[in-house]
Amino acid sequence: MMSQRERDIRFMICNGLRLRTSGREREASSPSSSASTCSYSSFIMDPKVVENIYLLVIVTLISILQNVFFAQKVERECKCHHSHTSAFERVSCANRNCMDAYPTFLAVMWCAGLCLSQAPAAFAGIIYLLVRQKYFVGYLGQTSQSTPGYLFGKRIISFLFLMCVVGIFNYLLARYYGNDYKDYVETITKAASALLLIP
């Protein structure tokens, strides 16, 4: 049995209304009668929103699969060798290094995609995942073989961070001065993202 407060909140969520802090002020006239008719279809994401983030979602899902691959590699090495062998230490260290940089990568990729443009951000994300794979495999050999992948990954993170800063700066210009350069910046960013392919 739902309380009156729960019915009010559900009604306001279903109708897209802002919940006020006092709780006593209601923006709707009859929440109790309409709350029962609220369907879960109102919680489905707007197609326009999905259109602006679907590439970022795809890259995120691919990165999760890559994390699963790394974890399985560590588990396989642990079962095949003792936990104190050099092969296991290298795999474990490579996995730990990749996971340390993972939250930063996700944060800057999503911020760049939302603040500026999702296509170059997702492209840079795919390149980063390829570089991360190269780093992981290189670390399994000699540690020096992983250095190019590490440096290339830093360059991609820097590019995504720069996209975030430019996107926020463009938003502030558009909001306070009425100058929106997003179309120009997106064109430049798409061209610049191709430069990430240069080793």
From TrEMBL:
What residue intervals traverse the membrane?
Answer: 53-71, 105-131, 151-173
Q: Which InterPro entries match?
A: 5_LipOase_AP, MAPEG, MAPEG-like_dom_sf, Membr-assoc_MAPEG
What keywords are assigned to this protein? Endoplasmic reticulum, Leukotriene biosynthesis, Membrane, Nucleus, Transmembrane, Transmembrane helix
Name one cellular component (GO) term: endoplasmic reticulum membrane
Location of the protein in the cell: Endoplasmic reticulum membrane; Nucleus membrane
Q: Which GO terms describe its molecular function?
A: enzyme activator activity; glutathione peroxidase activity; glutathione transferase activity; leukotriene-C4 synthase activity
- Give the highest taxon in the source lineage: Eukaryota
GO BP annotations, alphabetical order: angiogenesis; leukotriene biosynthetic process
Where the protein is mainly located, per its record? endoplasmic reticulum
* Membrane topology classification: Multi-pass membrane protein
Subunit and interaction comment: Homotrimer. Interacts with LTC4S and ALOX5.
Q: What does this protein do?
A: Required for leukotriene biosynthesis by ALOX5 (5-lipoxygenase). Anchors ALOX5 to the membrane. Binds arachidonic acid, and could play an essential role in the transfer of arachidonic acid to ALOX5. Binds to MK-886, a compound that blocks the biosynthesis of leukotrienes.
According to UniProt, the name of this protein is Arachidonate 5-lipoxygenase-activating protein
* Organism annotation: Acanthochromis polyacanthus
